[in-house]
Amino acid sequence: MGCGGSKDTDESANKNRTTGTNQKRSVNSTSNSNRGSNKTSGAGRGRQSNNTNKSNGKRQAPPKRNKVDRQPVSEKGYKKRIRDQLWLATDKKDEQELDHAICAFEKNKLEDNGDLTDAKEKLSYLMLRKEIRDAMLRRHPGVLDKAIQNVEESPYQFNFQHYLDRARELRQHLTELDTYRHDILEMDQSTISEIRSYHHPPDGVHETMTSTYLILGYKECELTEWSDIQCLLGRYGKESLMREVQNADTVNMTDQTASRVDELQSKFTSDKIRAVSCGAATFYVWNNNMCDKFSKDNADGKQSKASNEAPATPASTKGRKKNKG
């Protein structure tokens, strides 16, 4: 009986093992088919996303590649150091350091598994940001127009929208200033000399020229006597009145200056000033326009300091698995 019972038990165990193996195979085949379908659907989603981005025309953000899944590069010694330096430079915001790292990478002909592509894209981004920042600081209409155009034609227009709005606003501001100063800059030097030649200026001329120099940043205590105005009118070169008007900007004015200019010129009209001096009337109109623009800009909040908000930056190398040399 013992031997017979043992044989039956062995046969039963073999059947159980066979059944379990078949069940495992069935489960594995089912999971494999599910994974295949998931990959197919994921690929479909990826293609749909890419088509959507293409339809938008502009990339709304720099592409973020899957850095973790990149093929590792077997490097040692100086090659590994060069790649590490490229990673570090890509994470920073120093254009010069990143440019040097890219040059070293290319000079040594290292394999690009996406690291060099990311670095070049980051450098392009940083250089574009530097260009529009410098253009706003320089405040030159031609340079500003070029920087705005480059941003609008770049794939980073969305990222630079903050800078782009400020640059367009500044461009409009400079256009208005150019319009106001046009008549003064077209004025002959002989007209300035005529105003300066007055020993006793007609009513309103002294007040008008005092207002002009107040807008240019001079203190009223330096302008109380007509001889003070004559001395300033006699300057040439970079200190000449024409050059100072060309560089004048309402951002350098204060509420006290605008109020004082309005007070000085409120006693006269442009027609009255023009009757005694056409040149002084031109400055009278410019003074009024500058004060009006200052008040309007203050009301619109355009004179307030720009926020320190920075646009989004391209994908950095943070979280990237370094290659083991």
Automatic annotation (TrEMBL):
Ranges for region Disordered: 1-79, 297-325
Basic and acidic residues composition bias: residue spans: 66-77
Polar residues bias spans: 15-55
Superkingdom as given in the UniProt entry: Eukaryota
Family annotation (Gene3D superfamilies): 1.20.920.20
Name listed for the protein in its UniProt record: Cytoplasmic dynein 2 heavy chain 1
Species: Mizuhopecten yessoensis
